[in-house]
Amino acid sequence: MERTIAEKVISSRSGMPSPAGEFVVAEVDLAFFHDGNRPLVSELLEDMELAVFRPGATKVVLDHAATCPNRVVANVQAALRLFAERWGVELFEVGEGVCHQVLGERGLIRPGSLVVGADSHTTTLGAFNALATGMGSSDVAAAVALGKTWLRVPETLRVEITGNLGQGVSAKDVALALVGKLGASGADYMALEFHGEGLDSLSLEGRMCVCNMATETGAKFAVMPCDGVLEEWFASQGIRVGQGVKPDPGANYKRVLSLDLTSLEPLVAAPGAVQNVHPVKEFQGIRVHEGVVGTCANGRLEDLRDVADVLRGRRLAVGRRLFVSPASRLVFRRAAEEGILATLVEAGAIIVPPGCGGCSGAGHVGIPADGEVVISAGTRNFPGRLGNPATEIYLASPRTVAASVVSGRICDPRDLT
Amino acid sequence: MGGLHGRVWVFGDNISTDEIVPARYLMRFMPYEKLAEVAMEPLRPGFYRLVSPGDILVAGTNFGCGSSREEAPRAIAATGISCVVAESFGRIFYRNAINVGLPVVECKGLKGKLAEGDEVEVDIETGRIVRIRDSLVMEGDSKPELVLRILRAGGLIPFLRAAVGRKPNSSCSVGKGGEGWSAL
Inter-chain contact B18–A380, Cβ cutoff 8 Å? Predict the structure, then answer.
C-alpha cells in the first residue's frame, strides 16, 4: 500500500494498516497541556482514578497566564505544579515560554512522532516532521492516562511550494496566503504535507509559523519534510535523527495545491476571520492604535529581528503602542544578546514576558479600547479575541506590524521611508 | 440513544469557539453552569435565557472552528441544548462535543432547511433528522460504534472511568493503562 506521511505514522502507531478514513486507536509519543485548559487534565486523571501512563512522555507548560493575573489562575498553576511533582512530569514554569515554542526548541519533538497537545496550535510542531495535533482536555487526559488516542486517519492535501520570498515578504505572509487560498475549512480533517524547492526559502522558524497557522484551515496535521534544513537544526542541537518520514511515491492525495512564493506580497487578514486575506496595500492608510508581535505564530528570534530591523533609528508614531513578546526565555535571552531588545525599547515598544499574553485576550496584555484598531502578528482575529469585542484586529507579519506602528497606519513594510 | 426531539435555534457559518465562549471568561475558571450564561454571547447575549432544556442548536458550515477549548461544548450543553446539528463542524469542536457527551450531527445540505422555532427529531445513531411540520427527512452522518459508546456513557471521561478506572462497578478488570481500549 502506497501511503502518505499521516498514513505511515498512524499505521506504525496503531499496528494496523490505517488508510485514510479508518478509525484507529494509536499510541501517542508525547502529550502536553497548559494552564489555560479546562477541565484541568490533572483533575480528569483524578476523576478517572488513573495514573500518568508515561511521565517521560507527558509535559505541562505554564504559558497562557505567564504573569498570573488573578488568584484563581494562581491556584490552578499551583495545582499543576503539584501534579507534575507527584507524577514526575516535566513542567515548564511561567516565563519559559509558549508551549509549542518551548517543546520545539528543546528538541523534544522528533520526526515521525505522534504528538497531541491541549491547544489547537499544536500543528506548529509539524515543522519537525511530526504528526502533531490539538485536542481538548478530555482527549489529552485520555492520552496521558492510557498512552493512546482514537483517530480518524485523515486524507492528505499536498502543498507544492515553489519560488523565493521577495524583499519584505515573510513566512507569515506564506501562512496567510495558505489560509486565504484554503479558507477556514478547506482542509477540514485533513493532513497538510508541504513539499517543493520553495521550502528552501523557509527556515525552521518560518516553517513553524506556516504549520501554526495551518490549523485555521481546519487541518488536523501540517507536516514539513525532514530535509537538510531540519537535519541541520537537529545536528546543531547534538540530536541524531534518522531519515524522518517521507510519503511513498504512489501515495494518494485528495488534492494538490500550488503556492508560489515569488508572487507573494505582504498580506493581512482583515478583521473578523483569519481567511479574510488580502494584500496589505488594500488597507494601506488605516489608522492603527496598537501592534502586537509574539505568540506561537510569530514570537521567534527571526520575527524579533524583523521588528528591530524596522524600528532601528525610528520611534513609534505618536499615540501608538507596540507589545513584543519573545515566545520563549531562550528567544528572549538571544534577543537581548543581539541588542534587539534595546532597539525595541528605544523605539518605544513594551516587552512582554514569554507566554500567550497579547493573543488570547485572557485578560492581561494589550486589551484595546473601544473602537481601536490592532495590527497583530498573532494567530487569530475573531471578534473580541483580544478581550474587547468593540475593536478590529488585522493579522500580519512582524515586519508589517512594525512598519504600521511606526507610520501609525497600516503600511506595506516595503513602502516605509 | 434513539431520537432527540426539540425546538430549533439557528446560527450562521464559521462560528468560532471564541464566539461560543469568549476567552476573557476562561481565565476566571467559572463553574460550567455560570459559563452557560455567556454561551454565544458575542452573537446573541443572554442566549441561555431563551433555551428550554431539550432545544437543539442548528448551525451552518464550520461550527466551532478555532481554539480547542472544551469549555465551548460544555457551555452549550449547560444551557440545556440537547444536541448540535450543523452543515459542518470545526474538527476539534466536533470531537470535544462527543467527549463531553454533547451529541453532534453533521448534515450536508441542511443549510436553509430549518427555521428558528421548527421542531425536529434527531436520531444520533443514524444521523437522520426529521423536520416535524412536514416530515422532511435529512440524512446526517452516522457514527462509528466507539463514538456511540462514548456518547452513551456521557462522554470520554465517564466512558474510560467505567472501562479502566478502579471504580467497584467497573465491568472490566483493571489492566495497565494502555490495555483498556483494546479490551473494548
Answer: yes
